Amino acid sequence: MKRLVVKIGSNLLASAEQGLNTKRIHAIAKDISAIIDRGSEVLIVSSGAVAAGLKKLGLKEKPKDIKLKQAAAAIGQSSLMWAYENSFAEFNKKAAQVLLTRDDVADRVRYINAKNTLLMLLSYKIIPIINENDPVAIDEIKFGDNDFLASLVSGLIEAEMLVILSDVEGLYTKNPKEKGTSLITSVDEITLDIEKIAGGEGSTVGTGGMYSKILAAKQAVNYGIHVVIMSGEKAGLLPKLLDGEKIGTYFKPKEQKIPSKKRWIAHGLKSKGMVYLDDGAVKAITMHGKSLLPSGITKVEGHFNTGDAVTCVGQEGKKIAKGLTNYSSDDILRIKGKNTSEIEKVLGYKYSDEIIHRDNLVVI
């Protein structure tokens, strides 16, 4: 694999009681340095800033208060980067800090600029270490967890593999602490059954959990990216993985990957509203790759403007697709169920025959 994204979870790196686990960071840096020396490019998405800050603040668990959490992130981020820089320096490697919020990928120009910056760092043999910009992030602009961020970044830089390092060996048939469970070594398709197996609450330190990792894997395989969820507690596994050893749980990528622009629409933008479709429109979009026309819309929810991202929903409430709308919610309320030939008559103007053109529409 030429280009990899390695996501490292909070539980591996820090705890409220002990602070940063510098020995673990050093071991991971050693493994990553080894695969870089063999010709791979590696970008890290690292959790742990908030957890690292808890120790300094004397807190025993992640605070619910957003201001206190932001303060913990600000305190912990510098310690986290210091640990990475010191560890990588021992192996003659340099690291760069990159902090992102969702706003940085919601805007198409900033999305492309972020990609260019990351690729430039890699071209100079520098290891980008990405984290969510927690000190300034609020709920409206948060990614939610770093599993999702890692998947998004993997698609952004067109990585070949996403490796999610966890405190467990991979995906198990049930809770790994229970008897009779076994590791699932390979997943060809992430079905609802796989998602149900992974369901559960995250830790008191991290925001993820196995379920968020599965959702991140599902997103990444749609980009055509190989995904592995594996233990980050054991040294030496990353080089072995790239040598072809079966480690953790491997998720097979889709053969037909989503184009770059549609990745941005599907996962970089927040939906501003929903349009409900009749069965004919659902079939046209999902089976025949057609655009969304006003005749197929039965209901509109939310307030949105031309150019906003909206979610297309079937009659049973299932999310079908997401796209950039050519009309505002107010306009669609007036022309829903109408034929395209009636748009100008009803509105007095016509931007397009399509509510969402298929080039700006992605099935999710």
CATH superfamily membership of the largest domain, which one?
A: Acetylglutamate kinase-like
Computed over alpha carbons, the radius of gyration is 22 Å
What form results from the Cα inertia axes? elongated
**Helix proportion range:** 25-40%
Low-pLDDT segments, ≥5 res: 138-143, 200-208
What is the N-to-C order of secondary-structure elements (H for helix, E for strand)? EHEEHEHHEHHEHEEHHEHEHEHEEEHHE
Largest sheet: 8 strands, mixed
Q: Which percent range describes the beta-strand content?
A: 15-25%
Our count of helices gives 14
CATH class of the largest domain: Alpha Beta
Structure description:
The chain has 364 residues and is α/β, with parallel strands linked by helices. The protein folds into 2 domains: 3-262, Carbamate kinase; 271-363, Archaeosine Trna-guanine Transglycosylase, Chain: A, domain 4 (Roll). Helix content is 39%, strand content 19%. It has helices at 10-13, 22-37, 49-57, 66-89, 103-106, 108-123, 146-156, 192-198, 210-222, 237-242, 260-268, 279-288, 329-335, 343-347, and strands at residues 3-8, 14-15, 19-20, 41-46, 94-100, 126-132, 161-166, 186-187, 226-231, 249-251, 274-277, 297-301, 309-313, 319-324, 361-363. Strands 5-6-4-1-7-9-10-8 form an 8-stranded mixed beta sheet, with helices on both faces. Strand 13 and strand 14 (319-324) form a beta hairpin. The radius of gyration is 22 Å and the shape is elongated. The two termini are 27 Å apart. 44% of the residues are buried. Residues 138-143 and 200-208 have low confidence and may be disordered.
